[in-house]
Design a protein that fits this description.
The chain is α/β, with parallel strands linked by helices and 253 residues long. Helices cover 24% and strands 34% of the residues. It has two domains: 128 residues, Response regulator (Rossmann fold, 3-Layer(aba) Sandwich), CATH 3.40.50; 98 residues, LytTr DNA-binding domain (OB fold (Dihydrolipoamide Acetyltransferase, E2P)). Strand 6, helix 3 and strand 7 form a beta-alpha-beta unit. The chain starts with 8 loop residues before the first strand and ends with a helix.
């Protein structure tokens, strides 16, 4: 029986530099036409968002730095099943700081050999260990000024680490209290968050909760064994056990 070959996947190239778009297009068309076909090109976030809706593309080669814009601004405008390959001048250490649901990332100028690895990963249905959210638990610590790209309420959303004021365990997942007053559930364990968030700002106050110390407004003794911590923007306090109280009070000064 003859095995049926999957048709080429429609892709978008998003880059504000015309020559960069041309070079990537040439590589894809001359070396990987059996895997992908170019469905369109865009230089701005809005044009890319429109093309993503109308072209049927399910993969985007996305430059991080666009003229006056950030490629990350496109991510919330894409459907959840659209995959992204970042094209960036950042080195691996800088890109690793972003937790994104990305297939891969490429550094400029794009190497034909490295692009071939991306296409092979695309065919295999895998993701880069440096860019994959699935492997993010071992990707290294985050900085307070880093940004995350997470699935929130069945959509991908862009979130600054500093905007997380508290994290509460929710089984194998976690509930995030955000600076804007929202409370959202994320598929990531409390332990995973604790391992990656900066320890200077985020501390455990209970076996089931972490708090951003910069968001703490006051600490009140509640009983002989526990305290209540009030964080900015929330009336409901978090419980802190005496076990963690000494460390928290020390860091709060």
């Amino acid at each position: 029986m003859t095995q049926r070959t999957a048709p080429p996947r429609p892709v978008l190239i998003v880059d504000d530099e015309r020559l960069a778009r041309r070079d990537l297009r040439d590589l894809l068309e001359t070396q990987h036409a059996s895997a992908v076909r170019i469905a369109g090109e865009a230089a701005t976030v809005q044009d890319a968002a429109t093309l993503a809706r109308t072209s049927g593309a399910d993969l985007v080669f996305l430059d991080i730095h666009l003229a006056g814009e950030s490629g990350f601004d496109l991510l919330p405008l894409l459907e959840p099943d659209v995959e992204v390959v970042f094209v960036t001048a950042f080195d691996q250490h800088a890109v690793r700081a972003f937790e994104v649901n990305a297939l891969d990332y490429l550094t400029k100028p794009v190497s034909p050999d490295r692009l071939a690895m991306t296409i092979a990963r695309l065919r295999a249905g895998g993701r880069s260990t440096a860019a994959s959210g699935a492997s993010s638990d071992s990707a290294g610590p985050l900085a307070y000024d880093d940004r995350l790209f997470l699935r929130i309420d069945d959509r991908m959303a862009f979130l600054a680490v500093r905007d997380v004021v508290a994290i509460v365990a929710d089984g194998d997942n976690a509930t995030l209290w955000l600076a804007n007053g929202r409370v959202v559930r994320v598929r990531k364990s409390l332990r995973s968050w604790e391992e990656r968030l900066p320890a200077k700002q985020f501390v455990r106050i209970h076996r089931s909760a972490l708090v951003n110390l910069t968001a703490v407004e006051r600490v009140e003794e509640w009983s002989h064994f526990t305290y209540r911590i009030y964080v900015r923007g929330y009336r409901e306090p978090l419980e802190m056990s005496r076990r963690y109280g000494a460390r928290v009070r020390e860091q709060l000064g």
